[in-house]
Amino acid sequence: MVYSSEGFTWTPSGGVSHGLPTIGAVDPPTFFASSKDQVYDVIVVGAGYAGLVASRDLSTQGKKTLLVEARDRLGGRTWHSTINGFNYEMGGTWIHWHMPHIYREVSHYGLQDDWVVTQVPGGKEDYCTLTTGEQQRNISHEEEADLCGRVFRIFCNLDGNDLREKWKYVFGTKLDPKFAAEWDNLSCSDRLNQIRNQLSPEELAALEAQLVQMGGNSPDKIGFLNALLWWSLGSHTGTGLNEIALHTRLASGQSELHRRIFEHAASTGNLSYAFGYPVKSVQDENGLVTVTARDGTAWKARSVICTVPLNVLADVQFSPSLPVEKVEASRMGTANLCNKVHIDVQGPDYLSWGSLASPGRA
Amino acid sequence: MVYSSEGFTWTPSGGVSHGLPTIGAVDPPTFFASSKDQVYDVIVVGAGYAGLVASRDLSTQGKKTLLVEARDRLGGRTWHSTINGFNYEMGGTWIHWHMPHIYREVSHYGLQDDWVVTQVPGGKEDYCTLTTGEQQRNISHEEEADLCGRVFRIFCNLDGNDLREKWKYVFGTKLDPKFAAEWDNLSCSDRLNQIRNQLSPEELAALEAQLVQMGGNSPDKIGFLNALLWWSLGSHTGTGLNEIALHTRLASGQSELHRRIFEHAASTGNLSYAFGYPVKSVQDENGLVTVTARDGTAWKARSVICTVPLNVLADVQFSPSLPVEKVEASRMGTANLCNKVHIDVQGPDYLSWGSLASPGRA
């Protein structure tokens, strides 16, 4: 298996080893279906899900497509490494059939039976430790789920109907502008302050921890609109939220799905690709777009689809330039700041262990 | 707007008029992208969702595709007619983002804001009349929803966990063979008999009516496995079942989505089509498949995708022949036997009215 240069492992005997084996790593990292100096129909920047699906749709429809990616592997924020036969998810992990866009890809590539349910009750150490200030107590995962669902409902219930009235169409783009503006003005901390007196210390701690887990940042850095979107995506219930966020993952791992999309695109003969090329600039002039990598390599196309995430968008120079607000948002770096660590333990039957800390206790 | 020959209207002044105006009607009904006697890459039989999506995927990927349909319109069992500016859904109506395959098409064609919620409480006549033998009483729709959810849960709860244990992956194909065989042996009537003594007469009537509505037949003709599938698809809750089955429809109507898929396929230049051609036979010989219509017209292709529904499958002669069991199931004609009637009324504010009768009271 090919190694990505990302990530590292530590073992008592071997110490630190950099890089992880993954079927998501692309080797050799570049391939040009015809002359690399040709004018492509489209250059797609970024090989995460958005970029992969765009490249597949374009190349299968006969467009000469170049996929440019900074990393040495597929998947962007999601990928898995296989070590001793176990698939460790290194980023976004859980997917579900209530996520229609990704599930369509799961189904399209025949992975509809390739599931693992990650919540398996019954282990010896099957409990949640809830920490509140100086107090600590163990509760069952059922009690934890009830507690988290209940407090998230209070957090999001802006219409007395679990947000079902005011946010009817979860993927719709036309949220009532009045509500959108009002909610977008609040951080999760602001909203916590509005409902703080309705919650016990334990409830508040659980809610703060859940927000940290889902937003990957402290609540003052997470927009309230995000939390409302999660709630709507989760069918306006704690159970629904749990099912899309923590329930099922692909048995063969996220990189398996990336690989299938990528190979489908490559099989058309229309896909060229360049991995390991961070993009420095995207310049649109005289009807042609030039994409230039940090090492000076440049490609031209009639169109560009740029899928780089918000937190690195400001590192790319666009001409004409992006809206000032977008660049500012990118520089704020408010995106997910989590790190993911897998620890294999010996001893009693820890099937899995997670830890969340509310702000100030990280 | 073009008329389909299907359906009819009646008005006090104009009497009966056959055929309905719909953007789903295809006119002219045939088009051949090149010689109609060419050998196609694929012939797709049936222009419902399955056939439309197959034709679109094939033609956009450069395959010479012929779409053959018995009716004069797109959509098969789903379509809408527009009369005096109102979109009347004539078949399958409700869709939701928890149906990933159809929702991907909604999203792909930019219809993510094109929704109507069909359950709007607050009208003067906003209640449900529950009829049990000789008794009748009005309950609120909330009470109705609670009642139906509660009884459907009893009907489907085979594992003490709302079927979440034994039917984990709703689109998976590998249901435990033991359970599948056991459940597939029961009709909905058989299952009703197992739980009858747990239900009040009202609960039993509500459950029977719901089964009739969803299965489009009497409970002894509906496989229990179908009901379990609905329950799983509905997230193992009454609310979830209601949301996928009765909640949201496309404002512009089902035929709008069919039209967009069809026109996308046609825009490739690879799609030929023949509407108004019921297929008589599909014969696979010497590496070529011949599809012959009832009027004797025949086309040849390297492959055929046949999407005709089960209840008409036995009317097509296949060579080599289909499995005996499949033909037998088709001849039983156990598919949906519902008729759909829209009635416009004057007077108090009936926003909508539905009627369900349990067997023997139809």
TrEMBL record, chains A, B:
Domain Amine oxidase: 50-348
Protein name: Amine oxidase domain-containing protein
Pfam families cross-referenced by the UniProt entry: Amino_oxidase
PANTHER family found in the cross-reference section: FLAVIN MONOAMINE OXIDASE, LYSINE-SPECIFIC HISTONE DEMETHYLASE 2
Transmembrane segments: none
Native source species: Bionectria ochroleuca
Gene3D superfamilies per the UniProt record, alphabetical: FAD/NAD(P)-binding domain
UniProt-recorded Gene Ontology molecular function terms: oxidoreductase activity
Cited InterPro entries: Amino_oxidase, FAD/NAD-bd_sf, Flavin_monoamine_oxidase
Domain of life from the UniProt record: Eukaryota
